[in-house]
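#lab-general

N.A. 3:47 PM
ok so I finally got the sequence cleaned up, no stray characters, all 320 residues accounted for. can someone with queue access submit it? mine expired

B.Y. 3:52 PM
send it over

N.A. 3:53 PM
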Amino acid sequence: MARALVGIALAAFVQAASAQGGYPNRTITMVVGFAPGGGTDSVARVVAKKMGESIGQTVVVENKAAAGGTVATHQVAKSAPDGYTILLGSIGAIAVWPHLNPKLPYDPLRDLAPITMAVEFPNVIVVNSTLPVKTLAEFVEAAKAKPGTIGYGSSGVGGIGHLAGALLALTAGIDIVHVPYKGGGPAMQDLLGGQIPAMVATPVTALPHVKAGKIRALATTGASRPPLMPDVPTVAESGYPGYEATNWYAYYAPAGTPKDVLARLHKELVDALNAPDVREQLDRQGVEAKPGTPEALTKYMERELATWGKVVKAAKIQAN
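B.Y. 4:20 PM
back already:
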């Protein structure tokens, strides 16, 4: 009872403060759960810059790269619900980790206030150019020839890169080893350096190195070929119909954030995502802006939680 009263008092105080202070009147922190240089970080910085220009306040991106984005998600979930700390959340921390860790210190449906979907996009399966495979079929053949010896990197345990690889392993009947990193940037550096032979990467992380001939793109993980990589077939086209693993990032505030503050955040983020120059930058990164309502995001989260819970169980994925 006492805890509930404290929560009510805090929410009332925050609402009064926001009304008196004219939100926003200071720096907003946009928390990202991965290291600089990866896909989440790139999207965050494009949107943060545009949003800051609109509201006349600085929007800083804070990288909290640990535990597949769950540390960042928990940080925002427990932050003051005043609109000055928001999360660019990822599929892993929102829809996968709740199935991996029964002691996760947050519940995404209870502890976060959905604002808007940010972007959706497929990932791409890439290999170091020294690995003698040019197609997904050849990759599967190599994996079957030497089970448990081909490692693939991703931006972390429970992320869509991890799950896309696990889904491929289930679908193709192969044994490949997941190698988690603290972001797409560090994983790509090890792929380029030959420390890992393969990776499930974001298009923006992979494309420059594909064009330079340093890595080879085998297949994309969505239902259709992304505009950024029109010559790269999907996994479904490569012999595994029905395969789909789509990545997404979305914006959240702490639960209990006043409705007027959430409405302002929604407006500013949607305006930023719809801005022609922002869409052009995101298109170049191979991601599609998909702003929407908080209600639509909530329903999407619920579907994703159900979908990836089944994959986690079938693949017997455990938190490391």
